Amino acid sequence: MRITDVRTIVTCPSRNYVLVKIVTSEDGLYGVGDATLNGRELSVATAVEEHLKPLLLGRDPDQIEDVWQMIFRGTYWRGGPVLMTALAGIDLALWDIKGKRAGLPLYSLLGGKTREGALCYTHASGKDMSEVEDNVRKAIAKGFRVVRAQIAVPGCIGTYGVGGAREASNAKWSDGGPLPPEEIWEPSPYLRIIPRLFEHLRTQIGDETELFHDVHERLSPIQAARLAKELEPYHILFLEDPLRPEHKESFRLIRQHSTTPIGMGELFHSKYECLPLITEQLIDYIRCDIGHIGGITEARKIAAIAEPYQVLTAWHGPGDIAPMTHAANVHLDISIPNFGVQEMVFFPDVVHEVMPGCPAYHDGALWVTDAPGLGTDVDENAAAKYPYQRGYLPVVRRTDGSVYDW
Ligand code: KDG
Ligand code: MG
To answer: What is the CA radius of gyration of the chain?
Structure first.
């Protein structure tokens, strides 16, 4: 069996996705992976099409580890978001092929089920406390047992997880396409409102629902330690991504001040970045994006490294990665011993039309079927109806105009 074609499919059913379809010499046997990197989609598509495809043609698709090593180590200039997302797309497609060839779902190849369904969380946000509370209640009514809560920061323009920047920045355009919307953000009002939000939610909703919050890498070490400490009484499941990914040593400071559990990882690109946080037990949840760390091959190693350190997984699962990565998340979740929780989104119908087979939600959990491989696919004719549209994530500035981290 040989790889006979590698097709890069860029499509925009409501937002951009980059898919990698690997075709083999066996009749009708192919795999499809996701190589979407929000806001930099065409860099990844070019990496796959121009640089990696020639290395793959003629190779044995069964040798996933060897292909992975060859792409990661063989380039010399290794790693980073673009190349690791490209590698993830290829890796997922190869695991999909292996599963289809064996006639087995991916979770079976990974060791078989350790649980039925993957406990998952949804997002509840709002412009004020009562709107967030309403949205948490709606999530609970849908069966969610874990909910992420975000609130607009008073005096700021646009808030991560709540929105408002696009409308406020008046959608600037250049060369026929949009430019990044701009948010205005300040740490002081943010640090004041978040503990108040969780006090409100615990008072109104009670203790049973697991609640947590995404900082989105915006705080300094001492600010993060303060927030973690002030959130202690509300027993959140974890505080997500409190610090920038470059500052791993600063997680020690949070630990010294607080027992609030910590989750980190969506901006990591390899197991090496996870190592100090796991081996020093500075975090409780490792939450890499399988689509940005080189795929299933790297994610299962990270999960295995985390297991003896009692760190659980919470793989990133936003709307800007395709259903193939969501499926990979769930296959791993239900086959590893140290699964924690899974982020999920409800995709619009048009995404299901282009990419059928996304894990299904019911009863607070995500479920994959016994279809061979990942269980997902791409309808190339449907994908062609939705051409690429340039899009950017927002840029954040402080009130003095200086650039900050989004
Ligand atoms: O493209 C950026 C998003 O994937 C990210 O902002 C989502 O932080 C995120 C999350 O936790 O879902
Ligand atoms: Mg996040």
So the answer is: 21
